[in-house]
Structure formats: C-alpha cells, structure tokens
C-alpha cells in the first residue's frame, strides 16, 4: 500500500455517531422519535453505519437503539458498550431487531486510561478487550473495537491490542483521537504505522474517530483516510463531546471535492447535507455558526463587491462547491400570501420537506400569518416555520392560545396567557416580572406548574429588516425524568424554540416547546415503567407522521 492508501479497498464507509457521541453534547438530549427521524434522513443520504446510542446508559438510549434497529433496514445499526458483560448483553438485546447489527465495544489504550481510569495494567486491559470481543461475537458477527485515546497511546502497545482483538473476531478497529490532541501529520503516521505493523490488519476495516479540541478533527480524519482508514466516524454539524467530532459535511465534501488528493469512492447523496444540518440543529437546539464550512448561512454568501462581481461573471471564481450540490436552497425564491397552497407545497418539496396533510395545513396557516405581516416570506422564514410547526416529535400537552403583554420604561411588565390543557380546559392567568419575558414565563408557570430552571436564552433575527421573523432558542433544566424522583440528583436539559415576528411571542412559544418536551419525556418514561398515562395524553407516534426526506 502506498501513502495514499491505494492497494486496499478504496470505498469509504460513513459511520455517523450524531445519535451517540453527538448527543453527548451538553443539552443535546433527543427523544426516541427525534432520533428515529434523524436516522431516517441519515439512511436516505447513504450513511453506512448509524451509531444509534449506548444502550446500557439509560432506558431512553436503549429504546432508541431498539426502535432504530427495527425501522432502518439499509444501514448497519451499531450500539456502544464498555468492555463489560452487562453492557454487551444490553446492546445485543437492543439490537435484536436490526437487519445488520454491530456491537461497538472497547476500552482505553493510553497509559493514563489504563492506569488511572481502568486501574489495571496493559496486560490486564488487553485481556479485558479480548474477552469483550469474544463475548460480543456470541451475539453478532459484526464487532467493532475502539482503542480509546489511541492518539496518546504507545503505538507498540496499540499494535498488540489491535492484533489480539482482530484475532478474537473484531471486524472493524476504531482508532479514536479521543482528546483531539494529535496533529494531522501525527495521526496520519499513526494509521500508517497500524497498516504496516499489525500483521492481521487486512482482516479488519480501520476506522478513524477524531475529536475537535484543537480544531483538527476533520484534518485528522482525512489524514487517516490518506493512510489507509476506510471508515470515517462523523457527526452532523460536528456536534459531540466538548468541542465535538469531525463533521459529516466537512469530511464528505472534502473527499468529494478533492478526489485528486483522496483517491477513494464515496456513495453519498450530498444534497441532503443542508437539510439534515437544519434538522439536527433544530432538534438539538444547537445553532450552526454562520461561518461553518459547507452548511453555515454565510458559507456561500459573497459580501465584498469584488467577490460578488467575480461570482456573477463566473461562479467558480470564488466558489469551490456549487451550493446546490449540498442542498443549500436558492434563497432568491420568495413567496407571498398569493402563492397559495400549491406554491407553498412546491417550494417546501424543493427544500426537502415532504409533509403529511395535517402538518402541511399547520405550516400553511402560520405561513399566511407571517405573509400577512411581512408581505414576502423568504426561505429562512419558511425553514423556521417548518421547524416550529412540523418538526415536533412529541405530543403537545399544553397549547398556548394567546399571549398579551404590557410593558414599558414606566410600567411593571405584566403578562396574561391563555393555555389549553390536556383535559381540553382553557386556563387564563397573569403575572408580572422583571421584564416582559420573565412576566410571560411566570404566567405560564402559574398554569403549568412544572418546576424547572431557565439556563439559556437566545434571540436571533432569521431574516433582515425590521419585520424579520425572530427566533428564540432556550434551554431549561429539570429533574431527570428517567431517573424519576429527582432524589437521584439527575438533571436533564430540554431545548425549545419558537419563531414569530414578535420576539415576546417567540419567547413564549419557545418556553412552551421546552415544557411540552419535558412533560412528554416524563410520560414516556412512566409508560416504559408501566405507569398508566394521565388523561389527555396521546401517543407520540401521532405527532411524527411528517418527514424531512
Ligand atoms: O472518543 C472516543 O474515544 C469515543 C469512543 C467511545 C469511541 O467516543
Ligand atoms: Zn468520541
């Protein structure tokens, strides 16, 4: 094999870990239906392996792996475990319904992991790893082994571990730069060393899993590919532990755009990169920075006159990727109230949204409200409306009907809300606060009475101009609905968002979104524990019929 990896299979497998490592981002908690929806889009894009969760870590993760295993038939579905019997058994159980199940087990290989975290010796850790692979093999044929913190390990020990786990039956060996410490030169050399020093490496696929602590996750992943790795572990928008993981969109587009440097094959529908990025951002509440490569809102914006002139004369003067290739919508197309249902449906389909009739009607209704206030509705307004109205993968227990607010520099901010409850009864209440948002949140709390703490609040204008639609994203923290009683001390974060021409109304919607999500999560865990559902609660399946293809 030469330095570019030629000599081994040149097909790249995309392993997406948005639902596992990505979901470990602080506050990114997703419910089962949201995970299934993301998995459907990943399957449609051509992802080869979906890491659906860490089944032993929580009942929610277990259920997510179980549901995704049943629903997604064209990808390998992978469940993470530690090198422990109970983890491996839980993963095997959760993966039972999968067409192509994979258990991903492993443990640390750096001295700090072996000695301080695992409190064992190199020999002891190697034996644990081999035993884990043997046990996993009793349940599934496809076993992936992760050598945690490989980036900081002694390569000679790493080679020994890899040889032993491949002999024990590992089909894929994952080389993580867990702490994002290595440079591309070092990481490339590590993979090259593995390719030439592990005698049975031809019996396994080498996978790379890079974190972004020094901003080098994508570069390291690509260096891995150049040196023989054939599986890339990535997340949508690069979300993940701490500074995140290598991002799906960056790795895929680097491989496609620079085939001259990376002579590999990758079957992938890149036109879904932008829609999946928006979906993940909206469901996790983690915004995409405007200057994010490939899918940021400025990634294809040319602001200087010289650049605009150049692009108008010839697009490739300043663009190395055609925005259409990654599904970035043509922002020139705007709609008005006169566009009608047909025009709206057509535009939504162009943007990748295929909604069932009920969801479409909700979106149409909101569209008319916005069009009435704004006259023209831009692509980004439409995306905000869809994410508010059609991407709710939980049952709304409380519905906000009206908000009324009075405030000013010489008055006490006071809010009145009208909310329809699960019993169909309408509740009206009012309260005052330090500002209009505080007053609204207090008034909502008087009706819903769900203890929580607001930990993050942000407002952005979605489009330009005084009549822009504003979007509010919030995070609230509450007693963990899975561990139940709050005595466990567990806290879960729920994000919520809301869009409206009036930012105070958007703030109220965002709070209602997060509260309803919290209530739905608690009901779901009660259902899983076999407790009867309270009156007025419906199945979450009822809320998930539309899909973003
Ligand atoms: O970063 C890491 O090492 C991981 C492993 C569990 C694969 O996420
Ligand atoms: Zn990781």
Word description of this protein:
With 549 residues, this protein is an alpha/beta fold. The chain has three domains: 273 residues, Alpha-Beta Barrel (TIM Barrel); 61 residues; 147 residues, 2-Layer Sandwich (Double Stranded RNA Binding Domain). Helix content is 38%, strand content 18%. The protein has 16 helices and 16 strands. The strands form four sheets. It has an eight-stranded parallel barrel with strand order 1-2-3-4-5-6-7-8, surrounded by eight helices. A three-stranded antiparallel β-sheet has the order 10-11-12. Helix 13 packs across helix 14 and helix 15 runs parallel beside helix 16. The chain is globular, with a radius of gyration of 25 Å. It starts with 12 loop residues before the first strand and ends with a strand.
- Runs in which pLDDT lies below 50 for 5 or more consecutive residues are 1-6, 484-488, 535-549
Instruction: Round the mean pLDDT to the nearest integer and report it.
Output: 90
Helix/sheet category: alpha/beta
**What would the principal axes of the Cα set say about the shape?**
globular
Strand content: 15-25%
Report the end-to-end length measured between terminal Cα atoms: 39 Å
- CATH topology descriptor of the largest domain: TIM Barrel
Q: Architecture of the largest domain in CATH?
A: Alpha-Beta Barrel
Query: How many domain modules?
Result: 3
Number of strands: 16
**Helix percentage:** 25-40%
Radius of gyration: 25 Å
Strand order of the largest sheet: 1-2-3-4-5-6-7-8
């Amino acid at each position: 094999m030469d330095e570019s990896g030629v000599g081994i299979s040149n097909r790249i497998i995309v392993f997406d870990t948005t639902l596992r490592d990505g979901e470990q981002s602080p506050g990114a908690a997703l419910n089962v239906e949201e995970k299934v929806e993301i998995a459907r889009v990943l399957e449609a894009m051509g992802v080869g392996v979906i890491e659906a969760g860490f089944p032993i870590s929580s009942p929610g993760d277990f259920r997510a792996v179980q549901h995704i295993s049943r629903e997604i038939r064209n990808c390998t579905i992978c469940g993470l475990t530690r090198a422990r019997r109970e983890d491996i058994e839980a993963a095997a159980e959760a993966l039972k319904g999968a067409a192509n199940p994979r258990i991903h087990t492993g443990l640390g290989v750096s001295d700090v992991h072996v000695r301080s975290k695992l409190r064992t010796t190199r020999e002891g850790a190697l034996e644990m790893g081999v035993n884990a692979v043997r046990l996993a093999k009793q349940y599934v044929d496809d076993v992936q082994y992760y050598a945690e913190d490989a980036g900081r390990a002694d390569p000679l020990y790493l080679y020994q571990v890899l040889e032993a786990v491949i002999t024990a039956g590992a089909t894929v060996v994952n080389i993580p730069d867990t702490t994002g410490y290595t440079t591309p030169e070092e990481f490339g050399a590590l993979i090259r060393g593995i390719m030439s020093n592990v005698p049975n490496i031809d019996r396994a696929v080498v996978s790379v899993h890079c974190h972004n602590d020094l901003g080098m996750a994508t570069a390291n992943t690509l260096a891995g590919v150049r040196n023989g790795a054939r599986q890339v572990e990535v997340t949508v928008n690069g979300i993940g532990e701490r500074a995140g993981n290598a991002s799906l969109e960056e790795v895929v587009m680097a491989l496609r755009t620079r085939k001259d440097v990376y002579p590999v094959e990758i079957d992938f529908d890149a036109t879904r990169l932008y829609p999946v990025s928006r979906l993940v951002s909206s469901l996790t509440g983690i915004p995409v920075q405007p200057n994010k490569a490939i899918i940021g809102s400025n990634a294809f914006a040319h602001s200087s006159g010289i650049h605009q002139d150049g692009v108008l004369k010839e697009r490739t003067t300043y663009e190395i990727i055609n925005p259409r290739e990654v599904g970035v919508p043509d922002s020139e197309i705007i709609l008005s109230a006169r566009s009608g249902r047909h025009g709206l449906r057509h535009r939504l389909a162009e943007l990748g949204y295929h909604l069932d009739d009920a969801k479409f009607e909700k979106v149409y209704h909101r569209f008319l409200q916005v069009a009435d206030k704004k006259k023209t509705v831009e692509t980004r307004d439409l995306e905000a409306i869809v994410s508010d109205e059609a991407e709710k993968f939980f049952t709304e227990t409380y519905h906000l009907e009206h908000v009324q607010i009075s405030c000013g520099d010489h008055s006490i901010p006071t809010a009145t809300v009208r909310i329809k409850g699960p019993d169909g009864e309408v509740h009206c209440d009012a309260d005052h606060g330090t500002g209009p948002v505080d007053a609204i949140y207090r008034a909502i709390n008087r009706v819903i009475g769900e203890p929580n703490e607001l930990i993050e609040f942000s407002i952005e204008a979605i489009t330009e101009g005084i009549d822009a639609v504003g979007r509010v994203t919030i995070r609230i923290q509450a007693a963990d609905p899975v561990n139940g009683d709050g005595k466990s001390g567990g806290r879960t974060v729920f994000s919520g968002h809301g869009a409206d021409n009036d930012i105070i109304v958007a703030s109220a919607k965002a709070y209602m979104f997060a509260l309803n999500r919290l209530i739905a999560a608690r009901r779901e865990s009660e259902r899983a524990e076999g407790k009867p559902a309270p009156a007025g609660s419906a199945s979450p399946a009822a809320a998930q019929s539309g899909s973003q293809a």
